[in-house]
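User: We ran a pulldown and think these components assemble together. Before we commit to crystallization trials, I'd like a predicted model of the whole complex to look at. Sequences follow.
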Amino acid sequence: MSPFDFEPVLSARNFSLWYDSQQALRNINLDIPAHQVTAIIGPSGCGKSTLLRSFNRLIDLVPNVRVVGKILFRGMDIYGRGVDPVEVRRRIGMVFQKPNPFPKSVFENVAFGLRINGYRGNLRERVEEALRLAALWDEVKDDLHRKTGYDLSGGQQQRLCIARALAVEPEVLLMDEPCSALDPIATAKIEELIRELTAVTTVVIVTHNLQQALRVSDWTAFMLLGELVEFGPTREIFTRPKDTRTEAYVTGKFG
Amino acid sequence: MRRKAIGRVFAGVAGAAVGVSLLAVALLILITAFQAGPLTSMRAVAEAGISLSLRSLEVPGAREALTYVTIAQVVAGSPAAALGLSRGDALVALAGTGVDRPSRAWEAVGRAPGGRAVTLPVVWLPRAEVALGGLRAEWRNGEAQVVMVSPSAAAREAGLQPGDVLLAIGGIPVSGTRQAWEALVVAARTQGVPVEITVEREGERLTLFWDPTRTGELTFVRDPLRAWWSFLTTLNEPRYPERAGLLPAFLGSVYVVLVMAAVALPLGIAGAVYLEEYASQNALTRAIEILVANLAGIPSAVVGIIGLEVFARALGAGRSILAGGLTLAVLILPIVIVASREALRSVPKTIREAALALGATRWETVRHHVLPYAFPAILTGTILSFSRALGEAAPLLFLGAFLYVTYVPQGLRDSFTVVPLQIFAWATRPQDGFAAVAAAAIVVLLSFLLLLNAGAILLRNRYQRRWSE
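Assistant: Here's a predicted model for the assembly, 724 residues in total across the polymer chains.
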């Protein structure tokens, strides 16, 4: 059970993962609080991206992956028998390291998720709503159909990807170093946006940038060599870490 | 210093390779265009209304046969018919040049000074019955003798009488009734008119001089555009190169390639999508990949055997367009698969992840994103394979496609020929003019291939997506 007093939306239970014979995640136990921002930090290769991709079963795309343990999403084991990964991904959205808009119009980028989910309502309204949520609406409203995702700047592209993910109203939004390819101004905009997203969804963000974790997250998980070393409220992790390895990392002694 | 030298050598080799290929293409175009040159004057002669045929006359003691040209066909209502030329007449001279073979006539028309239309003097000898009248061969003293039974009016005028025995014409000994006329044709050309005729009348030898030829003027329209257009759009007349048409072969090629595309494109693209997007890396997948790679290396003639045994015989498609298209489909299938896989691979993984992360199924990801984005590149690759198929003769030869088709195929079960086979058929004909026709067909095929490839390049430049990295 969680030592903290919150209702987890997503939990890893004794979760381990192997690529072929190489173990990438070791017995992870982690609870993600709803409508908050959780940051996963750690040095390169510690397994934070692997863990993130395990949350929406995108890890299935990698050949020869083996998992042991559970990941519970609202109490359901997403690796359980009979669970359709497509269904999981519809409810848990993802934003990637590099902006990856489709080479289609801005509108079609956002509408795609709605279309394949057989959305019956007003497509235009939903697209506008998602673009507003992603703070992109004012910049693209005049060129919704004329501009393609590739005509936008890097920061705009990433916000488009966020809007695309938000359009299907995911219960969790996974973000895999969403600002690593962006300049500081675009990064600031995205960070501001992440704070606001807690109103509509739960955010899990993997980041390399400790300052960013400190700025945007409520909770922080520190991983090292495939293990979850420490999890707690962000301020505590950065100011009073319990584990010496966490302290060494957040104070910049390695990483 | 040494590294610089190696660089220079490499640049030299690379430059030479590019230069040689450019030179080869330029030479190919120049040579075939030059070879196809007579086409214009050939069509001009045909349009004036006559088809020519090469004949020869053997002269005892001569090392080579003397050749002459007869008019094998006169189109009713044509200028030639109006002039009085008819089938069986011999063409003696055109524009002042003696015509000893058909190409001489075409050359004369081609060389004549003047504009698009030229009016040239024609000298011809009417066919035997008209020119000489009735002849009879008799045996006397163990030798054939040709006796004039009923000389024509012209022959009478020259002094020939019934009962005259023809001994020699223009110095050529007469040995038969047909040969007598042939000697007259050859003598008129080689020695000029009047022709010296030696006869025996009542035991005496007489020498007469006679001009048996007729003359007139014929207008030839030398229009390259019209010549090429009619070459492209007329049915084939296999006997006369001046009336050869590429239409059946051209349409045959188009139909066969359409059938091929209808079969190979969906199959090849589906195969590529399976291998790229669905197949897991296992022994079976690797086996399929090796198979595809090897299929691409099979000599095209061997593919023809598959076509013959499987499509033509076992499936009973016969030597039809259907069988031809299926055979070519087997030939290009591996190329389509390889090109399509390459195109699919060029769509970044992140695009697939983006779609899948939104809850798209694998198929939705392929159908809405990967395939549409890869399609221009797929098309470019496959168009190049089409141009390979268009140029293939060997597999269809094996299949038993016809070399001469004089009609336009109407359906999938019709027999057919294709342009490369037609070129092959023409190129192996020894008669005058077929070389030019074959060259003209090569020019057509080359232009078509260049157009296709240019289209592929344009398509690539226009639609190729550059993925941001």
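The radius of gyration of chain B is 32 Å. That may be worth checking against your pulldown data before setting up trials.

User: Thanks, that helps.
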